[in-house]
Amino acid sequence: MNAEQFRRAGYQAIDRICDYHVTLRDRPVLSQVEPGYLRKVLPSSAPTEGEDFQLIADDYQKYVVPGLTHWQHPSFFAYFPTSSTFEGILAELYASSTSNPGFNWSVSPACTELEAVVMDWIAQLLGLDQSFYNISEVGGGVIQPSASESALVATVAARSRYIREHPQVAMENLVLYTTTQTHSLGKKAGFILGLKVRALGVTAQDDFALRGDTLKVALEEDMNAGFHPFILIGTVGTTSSGAVDRLDEIADVAKHYPFLWLHVDAAWAGVAFVCPEYREAYQLPAINVYVDSFCTSFYKWGLIQFDGSCLWVRHRKHLTDALDVTPEFLRTKFGNAGTAIDYRNWQLGLGKRFRSLKFWFVLRARGVKGLQKYIGDCIKLNTKFAQSMYESELFSVVTKPSLAMTVFRLAPKASPQLSAPELNILNRAFYARLAARNDIALTQTDLNGLFCIRMVIGAEQTLESDVDRALALMKSEAMVLLKK
Fold first, then answer.
1. Per-residue model confidence as pLDDT tens digits over 222-269
2. C-alpha–C-alpha distance, residues 360 and 108, integer Å
3. How far is it, in rounded angstroms, from Cα 4 to Cα 9?
4. CB 150 within 8 Å of CB 295
5. Which residue among 40, 101, 204, 409 is least enclosed by CB atoms within 10 Å?
């Protein structure tokens, strides 16, 4: 493909991308294909001779698009949102047009410098303490692929610090703390690193948040048993319920155990810090004073295309001490002098994508006020949905709504005699009916033995009418089930 052919194909691609987003509301939310569908229609091997690009582009529409779940659909309320904006699409196009691995400052200075600047912009936008800014030259921020990598990198740094300070401790005695509501990223970090993982219990009475007393008991038990807890992964906005661990209480305990690294995973809810009114309730003051590392993922709720998770550390040296591997062929004048950041030493891999470009494009195009309005609109829609659930004769809210998330279950007031196991059976059947539809997407979860359903609002095209329609659909499916 030469430049003119690329130009023509590019015009068509942009037109088709625009048509896709404009027609999202008219499409089914969920793909209707069966496993293995694509292998049945594609050749068993790559073509020997190159094919006409128009055929390739048309085959994308014919075969690939039908197999996509439309995460930006106005009726997609499952998992957490995944953003996609036109500004981000253009940024990804520009970034891929100048492909480079970005592992050192010198291999493309703009890639490193824009990331350092953008991470400070975002830290300021969220209200993070200046100790987390890159400009502090003590702490700093780096864009990781996802929250899972952010947690893994933080755990590697915490382990390295602990072993350096306690060289006599055997690796098999190290313990990573999560909670029973922590995302699977905590357990996976333990699997990868060969660590013991202890999930600390949380209760419905505490809104599924980790309390300081629970941490204190665990620390005393494990240390008396000869184990060495070295990191706690706390959460602001858990996946199952949007719970917020009591970081203020946790910090009061942790200050007596200075070897314990505090990492906060706020992959979804952390973006809400752009709205100052949510900062205190979602524990930003404690984050700013006490935690060692903090992560939030703008690709979930920040209008940035996947991937791109923002990780800040209070002391960058803990990252570089753990991850700096510099053979001769990677040495540079600026790296040796310490006058430039080499982000390869802040992450697991060597190379890195030019992710900061999409942050820069979106933040400039939308501005602080645009992002605040988007977050605020999602929360308002969820408040309306939650109120309908509270007032319903069919449904009950399982735990207090969190930002743009409500967790609910079918619990008809006309049938108060139903036991907890019977309600679980009823709700599994109810969710199965919802999951069988292609015009709405929700996610099930389990909260300490209660089967329930998550409703998360985040698609930029979602309107009040879409939420009303979702509620009507839920009521209709519930009534059909109850009649049976």
1. 999 999 999 999 999 999 999 999 999 999 999 999 999 999 999 999
2. 17
3. 9
4. yes
5. 40
